[in-house]
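Chapter summary example.
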Amino acid sequence: MNSRFLASAVAAFLLSFAVCETSATPPPQPNVLFLVADDFRAELASYGSPAITPNLDRVAKRTLQFDRAYAQQAVCNPSRSSFLTGRRPDTLKIWNNSVHFREPNPDVMTLPLWFKQHGYDTRCVGKIFHNWHTAVHGDPRSWSAPEFLHYANHGDDSAQVKGALPPNLAKTVTGFGYAKNGICECRDVPDEAYYDGRVAAEAVRVLGEVKAKPFFLAVGFWKPHAPFNAPKKYWDLYDRAKLPPLDPRRPEGAPDIAFHNSSEVLGPAKNQPRPTPEQAAEMRHGYFANISYMDAQLGKVLDALDASGVADRTVITFVADHGYHIGEHTLWGKTSNFELDARVPFFIGTPAMKSAGKRTASPTELLDLFPTLVALCGLPKPDALEGTNLTPLLTDPTLTLKPAAFTQHPRPAYYDREPSSQPAVMGVSIRTARVRYTEWRDWKTGEPVARELYDAASDPHEMKNAVDTPALAKAQSEAAALLKKQFPPTQH
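The structure predicted for these 492 residues follows.
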């Protein structure tokens, strides 16, 4: 039944491209516009946020929004390697930013390479594969032409302008993070002064170049990743005093191992200053400004697609590689298993689909992108994909295709910087409809050293560890069984 349903859905989708074609002419292959943001939690208007995201609102109106979508690990390289190969971090043996995914997996198939092998012109503009820690730049074999602005360092994204550089109007945050001009920067400069403005301009150019043939165009925005340095006009969109207030408390009863030292944003742990309320407010303001800056660049690409003449045969997807903390739970940055780090915005849309503008609560993982896009474009499915084909949800968003989503993260968070180059503990986490349950397991023995349970219904912000609470015993037991099935305790 499922295979017949899927075949019918794909046939109907492909048939929608055949308007004005004769019965003897095969419909053109669907294109794919694959949009990715960096460090972007579900902080956008269609998810109920005060973030000003008019162009992502446009995406939401022409796609299906996945309200419960999760990254497989909340750090760039493992997450991107996972969804671009359709395999979990454990399968790839990638849990850090310093190992290129092809080092332990030299022949693994990637999403763009699969499309390339099936006749598509595959292009990369911006950050798609995570690569700046390694000697291997991106993944050249996946693309039909050299990648553009894919190999860089976020800390080097300082304003590039002709003439004198306007002053930095950010006031309170200096000495944090790794950016040359401090973690916050507010300058009255054009969009193209920073990476994402140049990414958008190149994506528009490439779209014009490839629109006459089937294409897979991946556009990777560098924002809203720190530094918080959007051009001034995006800072001006917000009244800092009216942004959501920060609750910086740790969850009651949460184990210490659930946290990290926030060094990516706040700087090295040794003698690390904690931000004052004013500094925290400026960084939070900067994160929202980065979101709106990224959204505006995305809008330029959407405009180009709509003007290209091929929007009616182009699949659109937008995702973030993982979420982010901006002071909540005492955390800055990512690398936790909390909801704010694990949950991501996720959209998929096909031309004229009936579910456009709707939402689904079906649990979803970034891992599901590969099998879904392959199915939507009528390509054969490669072997060994671990995700779920989400196409049935595009017809009926009320369906539930999987019972839960899984996320994991090691401790130390950046264990590759430790002398052992091995994790001490791996935190494995499951999000069901009712709870998030996490086990922190000793890396060598597989035995739990700490556990967490958060009730999504009564505690959506995860402020109390309710592990072993009698009222949640059934939900915890069900989650623990699913977690054990997905992550069997092993000895390393």
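To summarize the output: The longest strand covers residues 215-224.
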